[in-house]
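Re: [ENG-882] Designed sequences occasionally contain unexpected residues at chain ends

Forwarding the minimal case from QA. Structure tokens:
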């Protein structure tokens, strides 16, 4: 019996597995290998870090079809003749890589050592605990102020800083801390935030953030980080910004397993794929390998750029590949993957958001309700009707 091996338990891999027809499981040994024994909703990591949610995790074994073998192991390297894990090795006839993303520091000094990334559930918990620790020090008069800096004002950075502002307001009252002793600063190299949205929507988001006490520092290039500060270039000057907690949301790349695997030709741990999600521009033929989600570099022919990694495109890749794989194995027309966005919604705390859906702009409560419905839709795909009742 041939072997189908899937790496990673994120949106792309699970969408692929949930859409595979039953006959595949009769004809293949299907194995999923993941570092974690749970799936976490990465689009909600900011809420965990801010303290708005306790958990966004769901046990893998409650999600997978019963005839999929699950192995909890950390992947170290991918080779032509197999995959090397920390605990074991895995061979395959067909390989699907959906290993997710990691923080990209772009070589900036101090980012790895002093900044908190937001790349998985464990890093979100560490960030939450660090902020709680610093708040306790404020209460105990061990520090005068708490300066929190979010580096990057893209999607993740804005959702995080909005949620932080809201939750810190609650914590300040609970702990009897003067709110003005806590500062939140967003630093962005570009002259505006949220480049994926129109200027009018981005401006509304910026105005809202400023109204809830977030300091916006735009056109500010980060040069280096230390344990208690950042150095930025702004208006042809170098400025030092105090920071007790530095959070890096200024860029992500594919999983480092890709760049550590000499089998692949890659850039920023991404493998360039064709319209069937198979690696191209490689040293050898890889017709039996597919790359989906954050590790896939798929070109948007209309813009000449790679598609940005999002949960939406990862899910669509997984669902597409399930149909394409079935057609490849049993015969049928294999159509090319075509990505059409259903729209994008960026939360600004519990009760506010901005979004663009079907080329229409939405703001406020309508937008946040839509955001929550999108989250529920994913849980429905994983668990069926019971997913609607999961938190």
């Amino acid at each position: 019996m041939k072997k189908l091996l899937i790496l990673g338990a994120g949106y792309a891999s699970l969408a692929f597995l949930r859409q595979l027809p039953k006959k595949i499981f009769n004809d293949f040994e299907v194995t999923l290998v993941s570092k974690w024994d749970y799936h976490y909703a990465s689009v909600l990591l900011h809420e965990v870090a801010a303290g708005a949610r306790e958990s966004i995790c769901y046990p893998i074994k409650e999600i997978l079809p019963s005839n999929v073998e699950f192995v909890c192991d950390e992947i170290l390297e991918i080779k032509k003749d197999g995959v090397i894990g920390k605990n074991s090795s895995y061979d395959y006839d067909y390989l699907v890589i959906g290993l997710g993303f990691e923080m990209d520091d772009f070589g900036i000094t101090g980012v790895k050592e002093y900044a908190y990334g937001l790349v998985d559930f464990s890093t979100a918990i560490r960030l939450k605990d660090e902020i709680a620790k610093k708040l306790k020090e404020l209460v105990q008069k061990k520090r005068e102020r708490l300066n929190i800096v979010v580096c990057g004002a893209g999607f993740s950075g804005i959702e995080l800083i909005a949620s932080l502002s809201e939750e810190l307001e609650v914590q300040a009252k609970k702990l009897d801390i003067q709110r003005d002793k806590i500062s939140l600063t967003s630093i962005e190299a570009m002259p505006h935030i949220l480049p994926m949205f129109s200027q009018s929507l981005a401006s509304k988001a910026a105005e809202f953030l400023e109204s809830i006490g977030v300091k916006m520092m735009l056109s500010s290039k980060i040069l280096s980080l230390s344990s208690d500060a950042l150095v930025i270039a702004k208006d042809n000057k170098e400025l030092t910004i105090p920071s007790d907690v530095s959070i890096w949301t200024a860029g992500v790349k594919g999983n480092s397993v890709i760049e550590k695997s000499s089998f692949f030709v890659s850039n920023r741990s991404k493998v360039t794929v064709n319209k069937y999600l198979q690696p191209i521009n490689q040293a050898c033929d890889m017709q039996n390998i597919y790359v989906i989600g954050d590790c896939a570099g798929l070109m948007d022919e209309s813009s000449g750029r790679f598609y940005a990694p999002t949960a939406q495109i990862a899910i669509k890749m997984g669902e597409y590949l399930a149909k394409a794989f079935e057609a490849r194995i049993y015969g049928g027309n294999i159509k090319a993957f075509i990505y059409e966005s259903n729209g994008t919604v960026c939360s600004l705390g519990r009760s506010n958001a901005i979004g663009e859906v079907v080329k229409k702009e939405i703001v406020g409560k309508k937008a946040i309700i839509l955001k929550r419905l999108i989250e529920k839709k994913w849980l429905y795909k994983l668990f069926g009707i019971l997913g609607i009742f999961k938190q």
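QA comment: On inspection the terminal residues look reasonable. The mean pLDDT is 97. Proposing we downgrade this to a documentation issue.
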